[in-house]
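Q: Predict the bound structure with zinc ion.
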Amino acid sequence: MYHVQARSAVADIDQYVNVPAMSTEPRVIPIACPFGQTGGIVYVYYIDAPQPALIDTGVAASPGTTIEPALNAAGVSLKDVRWILATHGHWDHIGGAHAARSMAADGVSLALHSADAPLLQSRRAHMQPDGYQALRFRYLDDMSALAQQDALLMQNLSGELAADRELHGGERISLGGDVSVEVVHTPGHSPGSATFVLSGLDWAFTGDGVQVCGGGPAGFPLYVDPIAYGAAQKRLLDDVRPTRLHMGHRFRALGGSVLESVLDGPQVEKALRDSLAMHERVVAATRAVVTLDVSEPKATALQPAAEALGVTGAPPTWPPAACWCGRLASAPS
Ligand SMILES: [Zn+2]
Ligand SMILES: [Zn+2]
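A: Predicted complex:
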């Protein structure tokens, strides 16, 4: 029987089937890009393949001021980049997308999961009242901080554009020769968070999809869908089983130390197990919060969760559970 299968419009994105092990390890260049006003660093990665790929782009200024000089120092250039693979649509990761795309090779393809595509297409999508930026300031009742954050976003997003390829998970993207990446949908931190996995080597680029204890001093992961986030940690731990992790930030470990952005060997499984364990602690603490009105969130309602997690600081250091208390309350245990 002749079997006709729906195919993507582009031949180099195929469903993942029997990918052979890679004969050579492509060089991966990590680039630390400063962003924001509090000393934040986001890591982007250049994969030196026949069709070079850039994983994430930093903020608007990053391609010109940080990424290109770092690549030049390594003997390559943004001009060589044929693929821009965005792990998700948050401003610290795709803010530089427009700038990077305009500096890259002719025919460059920017790929992003479809669920985060609105964040690439519209600056306003980052500022939705129930979006990832706004809720934290709403529950703190700090409208001036929210206005400042909006201004920061406008500065840090280099332009509005459509993805050349919208991803759904399960695709394989050829980077030429025998180098390819598989796309694994790992939502939770954002709806369209994706992990790119180098086929054969099982090196994973997770963006903010795995955060262990998060990037901030409070020591909490940030996510908008707790159920999806927990499932993504399990999927990475049990099914994907990466041998190397390339993360978007230097996240905190369970003991409070700060992890490197690239983890190798036994550190990978430990980070994934700890990430799942931390998630379960936060879920348990948040289930104790029964009084949060998600339409009118207030920080004080999160005090029981903060106490259960042993957090003693001011409300801004409490768990960002306002984003998802309502979703947890309605989700099965
Ligand atoms: Zn993020
Ligand atoms: Zn980030």
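A: The chain has one domain: 18-329.
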